[in-house]
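User: Hey, my collaborator sent me this sequence without any context and asked if I could get a structure. I don't really work with proteins. Can you help?
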Amino acid sequence: MNFLTDINAQWVLAGCVLLGICSGILSSFAMLRKRSLLGDALAHSALPGVCVAYLIVGERSIPAFMLGALAAGMLGAFCIQFITRHSRIKEDAALGLVLSVFFAVGIVLLTYILNSSGGNKAGLKTFIFGQAASMIGRDVYIMASCAIVVIVFSLLLYKEMKLLCFDVGFADSLGYSSTWLDALLNILIVLVVVIGLQAVGVVLMVAMLITPAAAARYWTDRLNRMTLLSALFGGLSGALGVYLSALAPRMPTGPWIVLSATLMFILSLLFAPARGLLAKGLRTWSLRSRVARENALRSLYEWSERKNGWDDWAPLEDIASMRSQSHAQALRNLRGLKSNQFVEEQSGAFRLTKDGQEQAYQVTRNHRLWEMYLMYEEEFDADHVDRDADFIEHFLTPETVKELERLLDSHKLNLKQPPTAHPIATA
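Assistant: No problem. I've predicted the 3D structure and written it out in structure-token form, which is a compact way to encode the shape of the chain:
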């Protein structure tokens, strides 16, 4: 952490953290408004503004470059809205059109400036991929001013932005103009783009307007928490990117910041408690295991029911045949039930314990209730019912079971244990 003692590193760290926080806040609104690519278009739109500012000023001036980028970005945002509202071109095509035209103009102007005398000294090429190391205190003050504007407006207009993200029609009915709110969101995004030009550049800026919100979305469904998490991820990405670039001095800071944000997205994708891939995999595995164990319980119950007794031992091949399973699959499920004290085993055959009989009775009853509901309410043929009911029965809630019992009672079929609607398949 010795790099923190260097004043220039402190300015770079402060600037990149501010960029990450602002990007994170606005990326939540942009993503939920389905305007994630808007930042890409506005970032590319800023390049000709920087070039025009240099042509006017005639020297490297970060405030002038930022003003130029701000003007060009706002012009790009206006063009996108104008094309969308006054033509039959859809928004994605308008974004692509504005992005490509403005960036092409920017590259033409940049090439002209670089080929002119003194053009190489302006350092305009750094605005394409960013050069955070060139930040000085004055740059950070300007970035901080823009960041404060973005944060204050986001807080003051949080309720309106929330309406814009989730229900535009409701916002209009309350008297909020979605057109002006969209325009304001575009202006705030342009401000963030201007903040990020020197740190990550026009090409990578889009990553900072998408990745923090995409990562935060995995952790929560609430907009306020998502916005806070997105700002946190953005700020941490900025700090981690600066630290990594300090460890590798010849590597640019912007790509490290984007890679840091990507790392947080990957960690969120894998380990978020509700939406992460690991949590989903565990839930799927747990569900499949529960369904397999309940099906094995029902098979043992129906086998015993056919034998008119609970003391007989069901051969493994009979249970496997009833579920169309291999012997290994059936044995694994039955051994799982045995570990729960629901099943006893003797010489490769199985039978239900007292607790297993009660559990199997309830599972079988739910299955048959659902089968009878499908037969009487949906008029399915009985021989088509078994597989339809086979999966849904595992998700019947106590309230649903009571409703099914009421339906059976209305059909004068209020039996303690309804009969199976089809012959029980065994070997």
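In plain terms: Residues 277-307 form the longest helix (31 residues). You can pass these tokens on to your collaborator as they are.
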